[in-house]
Write a structure and sequence with these properties.
319 residues; alpha/beta; Rossmann fold; 2 domains; five-stranded parallel β-sheet; two-stranded antiparallel sheet; globular
């Protein structure tokens, strides 16, 4: 179904010489991720994703599949590093968002209707195994631990037995990637309600990579790409607030348990620019819209701390 093609990704990694990675020739596929043209890649995160993909392409049929487990705070870029790389390699990705009630057999078989009759159809995981492209399971740490049994079977043998007795073997290119806010050992912060302690049998079968927030210089480039006309002084103020919330979260100060994410920051700036009329009422749009996009999601004492922080940086009225 897919024709392999070498892609030179030097531009996305900022290299001066060719960086060749195998992918697919251009193809129309419903699971092909859309390219975000302003996305900023991080080399430290690209390496394990590319290593996982190369192993998937060239795995011997008798070798186990070595998966990838990306762990880190909300909004740190766990999902996007996967989808944006494969978007540029023309590789589809089956993205499965897990919940506490998820039955992974949904990814093995689904029920469809054909000519008025109910029929079994291969689920997204089985379709990816047949097609030879990656599966990304988000929030894997909310699954019931016993659901891991299905994952172990696929990772260990590269195949799965379907309910109708068929054995499906993974084609080259099939990879299993997981993302979660915890590393599967439970949540000690209280930030991620619903997460469960997973069996060490899962992490034993995967590479585990910690995904933190990007550094300030790179994050500033991301924001500039999103808002090329934003005043430099305003952007510097945004960066000060961003850094302060994360420092407070790291130090456990002001009741702030988590920092402002990149996605929240983009939404915040966008809302602030669209809400300039607040100034007529003596309000600073950058203060008020920060509350909408971030502070109001925190506990009460933290909300007050964030408002005071923003007012100190932007002023109580128009900046």
């Amino acid at each position: 179904m897919f024709t392999r093609q070498i892609h030179d990704i030097r531009q996305i990694v900022g290299a001066a010489t060719p960086v060749e990675v195998e992918g697919f020739a251009p193809v129309q596929h419903p699971l092909l991720p859309a390219i975000n043209p302003v996305y900023q890649f991080r080399r430290d995160l690209l390496r394990p994703v590319i290593a996982t993909w190369k192993q998937a392409l060239h795995r011997h049929p008798h070798q186990p599949i070595q998966g990838l487990f990306l762990t880190g705070p909300s909004g740190s870029g766990k999902t996007s590093i996967v989808t944006q790389l494969f978007a540029r390699l023309n590789v589809p990705v089956f993205v499965f968002d897990a919940t506490r009630s998820t039955d992974l057999m949904e990814g093995v078989r689904t029920v469809g209707i054909e000519d008025g009759n109910t029929i079994d159809q291969p689920g997204g995981i089985v379709q990816a195994m047949i097609g030879g492209y990656p599966v990304l399971i988000n929030e894997v740490d909310v699954l019931k631990p016993e659901e891991g049994t299905l994952l172990y079977s696929i990772l260990d043998s590269g195949q799965i037995a379907t309910p109708d007795g068929q054995v499906v073997k993974a084609a080259p290119g099939f990879a299993m990637i997981f993302s979660a806010n915890t590393n599967g050992t439970g949540d000690d912060t209280g930030l991620y309600a619903g997460t469960r302690r997973q069996s060490a049998a899962l992490t034993r079968r995967v590479r585990v990579v910690e995904v933190g927030y990007m550094d300030a210089d790179q994050e500033k480039r991301v924001l500039k790409a999103h808002f090329p006309d934003l005043d430099a002084a305003l952007l510097d103020k945004v960066m000060r607030v961003l850094a302060s919330t994360r420092n407070s979260a790291n130090n456990g100060s002001d009741g702030i348990l988590r920092g402002l994410s990149t996605d929240e920051t983009v939404s915040w700036i966008n809302d602030a620019l669209l809400s300039a009329t607040m100034e007529r009422d003596g309000l600073n749009p950058f203060v008020e819209t920060l509350m909408w996009n971030y502070a109001n999601k925190l506990q009460y004492d933290a909300r007050d701390a964030v408002r005071k922080l923003a007012q100190g940086v932007f002023g109580g009225a128009a900046a």
